[in-house]
Amino acid sequence: MDCKTAKEYLSLYTDGRLSDALTAQLEAHLLTCDACRKEMETLQLLRVQIRALRITEADDFVLDLQRAHKKESVVFIHRGWVRSLCAAAACVVLFVGAYTAVDRGYQMPQDVEVQMLQAQDDVIGSDAKAAPETGKAQSAETQRNITNDTEKTRQFERVASENQSDSVSRWTVADLTAGARTATVDTSTEPAPAAMANGQAVPATYGGGSSASAMDKRVLQISLAPEAMEAVSAYIAGARLSGFGGEVVLSDAVVASLLSMEGVVVLSDVTEACDTDIYSGKTVIIY
Amino acid sequence: MDTRTLVEKCAAGDASAFDMLVERYKLKIINTAYGMLQSREDAYDIAQEVFLKLYRKIASFSGDASLDTWLYRVTVNACVDELRKRGRRVQTLPLEVETDEESYALPIADVSAAPENVVLRKEQRQVLLNAIGRLPEKYRTVLVLREFEDLEYEAIAEALDISIGTVKSRLNRAREKLRNFLEK
User: Which of A21, A42, A279, B47 has the fewest CB atoms within 10 Å of its CB?
Assistant: First the structure.
């Protein structure tokens, strides 16, 4: 066996994967060739040293996993659509909602507001009931008590107004957990809530009609309070959002507010981060 | 309790069974990610993602499927995603690490006893990790699964969906490159 052939076999030999016949030939060569023998010893040493790099304990890992359990959904938010968003002081409660519907000939609203209101303990009230498909804005106030046997009841309210209308839609956590497709709204002119109210899946229309270009977007990761996360998860499950899903666009002020929250981390831009499995299941906010 | 039973219990909603799975697999996943990314922190992040994915998918996990293979595949894919993201913020990993005394390169000598008895100095670890980090992704992946996880060629081939011949050639190439990096 010559040196060139011997070197080809050293890796297999180190792993014990060389046939008996070739092993005998290689070992015979190594007895007479210092260079190849030294190379073989180097490979063996390298192997030992690499294995010495291995992490042998990770007792602190479980806590991190627990934290990850709170991030179960993917939410995409785009700057420019939403004008303001008021976060609760005590509890990080996230918005949800809306989307683009350019493929339906819908003009994306420029003046939508999404508000996050403070979590409350037991009883929530929700406003506004209307059939959006009727074409008439309605402003009837409805008070509804909803209790949850096992958890705190939350208020999770979305307020949206179309740029040419004062009409407002409000969704509560109850709407969302019951299935966003049955959410009640008091505007008749905004297709997005209407589509959901009609039980239609929200189309994945990332970037379609969004005023923000892909280059403008960055990805944030936000830790949510569990109760907020549940609402978001339920909403997303109900709306069948996945991948580039529902969109809400945030103003600079909102983004600044989000960035000030504990747990917000800038990850990367959207173009790669959001279509990979690694971010699937996380709460990811793009703006 | 065997893995298959644990998976079935998880699918039935047994949270403690999932905890046991995490305990059983966490070092495997963390080490794979650590070898791929050379950062313990990043490895933890990847492991969280992998377990979260497992948590969500376990109900649909086929009893015939190999959990090991699935976990390695998902872990490697997550690492590759991370590496590609990093690719845009180009990193240069030094093969020499400045110490208080002098510039230090990994010595290729003094092999002693079993791997568990080998203790690398901090500088040695960093040099070696950096060298692994310089390997092209396809070579690094095979090397990590072989050396960090001690997987047989067949298991590596299955996890990466490549042939055994490809495993052999990539492993050979990975070791050759690594040695060259360290001897320069």
Answer: A21
Please give the Cα distance from B27 to B25 (Å, whole number): 6
Question: A160 Cβ partners below 8 Å, 6+ apart?
Answer: A97, A98, A109, A112, A113, A114, A168, A169, A185, A187, A190, A192, A193
Paired strand residues for A219? A268, A286
The string of pLDDT tens digits covering residues B147-170 is 999 999 999 999 999 999 999 999
Residue range A256-266: average pLDDT? 42
Residue B78 is encoded by which pair of tokens? 């997550």
Which residues have a Cβ under 8 Å from the Cβ of A162 and sit 6 or more positions away? A109, A111, A112, A187, A189, A190
Confirm if A190 and A248 have CB atoms less than 8 A apart: no
A142-179 burial, b at 16+ Cβ within 10 Å, e below that, comes to eeeebeeeeeebbbbbbbbbbeeeebbbbbbbbbbbee
Report the pLDDT value the prediction gives residue A67, as an integer from 0 to 100. Answer: 52
Residue B153 burial (CB < 10 Å; 0-12/13-18/19+)?
A: buried
Answer left, alpha or beta for residue B165, where phi above 0 means left and psi between -120 and 50 means alpha.
alpha
Tell me the backbone φ, ψ of residue A40, rounded to 5 degrees.
-65, -45
For chain B, what is the radius of gyration of the CA atoms?
Answer: 18
A12, A272, A281: residue with CB nearest B53: A281
Set of chain A residues whose Cβ sits within 8 Å of the Cβ of B49: 68, 277-278, 281-282
Neighbours of A256 (CB within 10 A): 10
Backbone angles phi, psi at B74, to 5 degrees: -65, -40
Residue from B120, B103, B115, B25 nearest B71 by CA = B25
| A4 interfacial to chain B (CB closer than 8 Å) | no
Using the CB atoms, write b or e for A191-229: b if 16+ within 10 Å.
Answer: bbbbbbbeeeebbbbbbeebebeeeebebbbbbbbebbb
Buried b (16+ CB within 10 A) or exposed e, B58-79: beebeeeeebbbbbbbbbbbbb
Calpha distance B164→A100 (Å, rounded): 48
Its ipTM equals: 0.84
Q: Which two structure tokens, joined as six digits, stand for A236?
A: 């997303």
Residue B59 main-chain phi, psi, to 5 deg? -65, -30
Alpha helix positions (H), A120-245: 173-178, 191-197, 226-239
Distance from C-alpha of A186 to C-alpha of A51, rounded to nearest angstrom: 64
Task: Determine the 3-state secondary structure of A219 from DSSP.
Answer: strand
